[in-house]
Amino acid sequence: MTGQVLPYDVQGSGSRRALVLHNWFGDRTSFDPLRAHLDKDAGTYAFLDCRGYGEAIGTEGAFTMEEVAADALAVADHLGWDAFSVIGHSMGAKAAQLMLLDAPARVRSLIGISPVSAAGFPLDGASWELFAGAAEDPGNRRVIIDTTTGGRYDDAWLGQVVERSLERSSAAAFRAYLDSWSRTDFHHRVKDNPTPVLLVVGAHDPALGAAAMEATWLRWYPNARLEVLAEAGHYAPEESPGALAEAIEAFLAG
User: Fold this and answer.
1) CATH 3.40.50.1820, applies to 8-253
2) What is the mean pLDDT of the segment spanning 201-207?
3) pLDDT per residue as tens digits for the range 177-202
4) DSSP secondary structure code for residue 116 in this structure
5) Residue 73's closest CA among 95, 43, 53?
6) What share of the chain is helix, strand, coil (3-state, %, to 5)?
7) Whether residue 1 has pLDDT greater than 90
8) What residues have CB less than 8 Å from 69, skipping those under 6 apart?
9) Model pTM greater than 0.85?
10) Where are the domains of the chain?
């Protein structure tokens, strides 16, 4: 698949290069709290929007993980990066694994933040209706965000995350990406992959926490390790940005 260079911006000038892919509910601005804690002299980070999100909200596409991976590689080409790491939050980590499969000589390592595995995220009937309905119903979005952060936040915080997701994503892209990140399974293609992997999850994430990592990623990537953030749920870039930045930078330095 041929990718398209989508809107992105670069932070830092250090030698440790990383492409950063956002989650289902947020465009690249969802990383703003994290960015305030990253060492600009140690790393260079390219934050990009997926089709249908952020500054690419009007960009047409198939809205699949394969397309996200191809577009991210096109950004790397545009930057002239021969080798780099990929940081993916939730659905972004599913696309990051496809980048690894498509360009194994270029992807040095993966960092998954509450990451969706290569096997997807199976949902039962009621859960599927909740997630699929979130494309049009803000109330569904609110329930999902509240549940995956352990019911720890007030109305103002939840409302802000919901409002941003509505403003900065198209309903068509939001709905289509769900099929791709939740229902496609390519775990047989990543099994025993030796690439270094860091998994960072929140202690309050009931969906993609430590248990989910042990059942998926840690079985398939022999050089993967897990770090649990005590004060985060599913949205560590916003809930625990300082601790997440520390974990990312220590891993990339290693």
Assistant:
1) yes
2) 97
3) 999 999 999 999 999 999 999 999 99
4) P
5) 95
6) 45, 20, 35
7) no
8) 1, 3, 95, 96, 98, 99, 102
9) yes
10) 8-253
